[in-house]
Structure prediction request, 427 residues.
Amino acid sequence: MRDAALERFEALFGPEFGHGKPFESAPLHAALHALGAPHWHLPPVIHVAGTNGKGSTIAFMRAIAEAAGLRVHAFTKPHLFKLNERFLIAGEIVSDQILVQAAERLHALAPDLTQFDAQVASAFLMCKETPADLVLLETGMGGRDDSTNIIPDPALTVITPIGLDHQDALGSTLAEIAMHKAGIFKSFVPAIVARQSEDARAIIEAQAARVNAPLFQHGVHWDAYESNGRLVVQTEERALDLPLPTLFGRHQIDNAGLACAALLAPWHHEFTDDAFAAGIANAHWPARLQPLTRGAFSAPIRDVGGEVWVDGGHNEDAAKSLARALGDMKARRGGDAIAIIGLRARKDAEAFVTSLAPSLARLIAVPLSEDHIAPGEIAALTAKHGIASDVAPSLAAAMQNAAQSPAPRVLICGSFLLAAEALAAES
Prediction:
């Protein structure tokens, strides 16, 4: 699939890099002011950082807000198929023409920006020029040094669960990574925070106190849990009894709860119980434990009584969530799981495989279309845990291999590249 917008961004600003570097704010500041400072003239912004669950939490918030009749802008990453997916303008993915026009206007004023800075500036420009009620803004990496943190006065900040990822840029410990994530906190701006490890929580509390940001923590100021087949969200002022998310997995209970807690916080809008219920029931976010049920790609597995799931998770905490989900599936319906895994070269393969392996009967390692860990290396890690492993030259070959097992539960995971390949093949 040709990505015309990405090709143009690369021609104008070079390949996407630099969003993990120490942030040099002057070029982006200058570019934005040359554009008329669009980041000063946006609808209320909810700024979201964290390691896992950012996209799902934003999807829930968007669905709730739209169910309430609000027009929503969003900037998220990564994309699955086309760069345009990162830019949601008034509820619609932006067209190639509008996105390229924004990039070219920006390049005429600031040709030396990094590509990610150019994406952020283009997002602000398009959000300013189209009326809406709300902007959902996801950090690219980290928070403190991220280009999106140029936003001066968000309505809310949100921190999803923090785990080990991008250690080369953010630090080797949870405390170091949490310092980056909590860097989005602003004075007197409510900060809604998911349940965290002790190390991350201590840093978050200290940073909130340092900048005088009101803190609303999961398990302290609000809670979310499943009860009798329903999602219950409770704050000190309000209780919601909602349907369970259609997004599968226990971690989506937490993500949905975080989204609700954010929109229940004191800010610009109030939402009815009906809007919360409709949003939680209807939120969609691709490649997050997404079942494949109708296409030719998954047909060989379904023909032998199996099922296929796709998830872009690629770090240790994501693997733990996937392992819990596979365990829940087995408890309800029986069956053994086969994981088809491909991992980018910079990922921690040992942590990912170690966290996922206990839920597997077998693993099939495959290459990716870009820099990746050798499948043989992934398979060797699996053997340490007593799990059978194979290597396949491609995703298609791995699916043929998996189809030889009776009624397999196949999970394709480890990279958004692999998830996109599976979803494209299914469609």
Summary: The chain is about 40% helix and 15% strand. The longest strand covers residues 222-227. The mean pLDDT is 94. The CA atoms of residues 260 and 412 lie 29 Å apart.
